[in-house]
Amino acid sequence: MKKNKFRFWLDLAMTVVLCLLYSPESTSLPFHEIAGLVLGGALIIHALLNKKWVINITKKIFSKDLKKKTRFAYLLNVILLIDMLFIMVSGLFISKVVLPNVRYFPNVNWMPIHIVSSILGLVIVGIHIGLHWNSIKQMGSHFPKLAKLFTFRKTSRKLVSRLIII
């Protein structure tokens, strides 16, 4: 149970930090770069906490018994991991605060790579959260004050989807 609570709070913190990172103009550049590194570390911890699932699915990935949803989630996670690596590496290469003097491959314009991979990452994270929404609701139900956040009415779903589209 303690591991699940830690997972929940880690995932919630990663979500909040990710939202802040998608609004760099409302935060400072130092915050953006440092929070990006912290998020990278949190992603590693997140992956390690879920390594049993990853190992088990990796062993069964070509099995006909594996559910399509599980196979899709696995492939999406692989794509998300690669995309997050692109975001972090390109972020380090354009860094002005954390690593201001690091300029690998100076002929490459890393900013568009960072922006495009970030937009793609936002879409993939949304799908990732959607695939795991029932688990998130279940973990959230252990925190009664937060449980209200995980029980949407139909109108709330419409509102959230409209806000995402905007």
Keywords:
166 residues, mainly alpha, globular
Summarize the structure.
This protein is mostly helical and 166 residues long.
Architecture blueprint of SSEs:
Blueprint: H1 2-21, H2 29-49, H3 51-60, H4 68-93, H5 110-131, H6 133-140, H7 144-147, H8 154-165
Describe the protein in words.
This protein starts with a helix and ends with a helix. Helix 1 runs antiparallel to helix 2 (29-49), helix 2 (29-49) packs antiparallel against helix 4 (68-93) and helix 4 (68-93) packs antiparallel against helix 5. It has 8 helices and no strands. With 166 residues, it is mostly helical. It has helices at 2-21, 29-49, 51-60, 68-93, 110-131, 133-140, 144-147, 154-165.
State the distance separating the first and last CA atoms.
Answer: 38 Å
Number of helix segments? 8
Radius of gyration: 18 Å
Which class do the helix and strand fractions yield? mainly alpha
Largest sheet entry:
none
